[in-house]
Amino acid sequence: MADPFDLFQTWFTEALASDAEANAMTLATADAAGRPDARIVLLKGHGPDGFVFYTNRSSRKAVQLAANPHATLLFHWKPQRRQVRIEGSVTWASDAESDRYFATRPRDSQLGAWASLQSQPLDDRATFEARFAAVAEQYAGRDVPRPPHWGGYRVVPEAIEFWQDREFRLHERRRFTRAGDDWREGLLYP
């Protein structure tokens, strides 16, 4: 049996070689009433402890994750004719981990994290640009700290499915499910 994290790293490395946005993934959540929602976010870390992305913790996705801390991630790497689906529970990344990643972001992205009231109604673009300009002035000449409302989320996998396209729709589906500290591997019909 293969290790699902080793297999993910192999596929991810191959995808990175041909796709500048190989870390783009669909994040599917559901609200407290069970209504599904999905959007693209960027993978910023991964390993046996989970798959990490960052966002405003007041955003629509964050509100949904607070009400229902489970999510599915989906990678689609068309050049390799592959998909990876990850299902699991969601926890916050530590403040230290969020601080480290935030420090690597471009300055304007850091300022934008302060200026944006993500997912809230916006009367017009000029309002947002004025907020951005005010934050840029506030932090002129000094480092931009991570906002307290911004940080990482970790999807801790309970299942990981690797899908490989095959001719005549005779695809290969390998599904790994967590069994305590180990993983069970099985195949699914296409």
Summarize the structure.
With 190 residues, the chain is an alpha+beta fold.
Q: How does this structure look, described?
A:
With 190 residues, the protein is α+β, with helices and mostly antiparallel strands. It has a single domain, classed as Roll (Pnp Oxidase, Chain A), CATH 2.30.110.10. The protein contains five helices and nine strands; from the N terminus they run H-E-E-E-E-H-E-E-H-H-H-E-E-E. The protein has helices at residues 4-18, 60-67, 95-104, 107-115, 125-138; strands at 24-30, 36-42, 45-47, 50-56, 70-77, 82-92, 150-164, 172-179, 182-188. Strands 1, 2, 3, 4, 5, 6, 7, 8 and 9 form a nine-stranded antiparallel beta sheet that branches. Strand 3 (45-47) and strand 4 (50-56) form a beta hairpin. It is elongated. The mean pLDDT is 95.
